[in-house]
Design a protein that fits this description.
With 53 residues, this protein is mainly α. It has 2 helices and no strands. Helices cover 43% and strands 0% of the residues.
Length: 53
């Protein structure tokens, strides 16, 4: 079986967030101070293996 390869339209996109709207929403949320979001992000990062980042 052939190995999977990225879609051609994603080759020039340096963002891991494929859709511009998703990237925009992420930037907005990360630029706001949200005390409830900090523990969620911390927990998620602690549970994610470094090789998957």
């Amino acid at each position: 079986m052939p190995l999977p390869s990225p879609l051609p339209q994603t080759m020039s996109n340096k963002s891991l967030l494929f859709h511009p709207r998703v990237a925009e929403e992420a930037n907005i949320l990360l630029s706001l101070r949200d005390d409830a979001l900090v523990p969620q992000l911390t927990r998620s990062l602690n549970q994610t293996a470094a090789v998957n980042m």
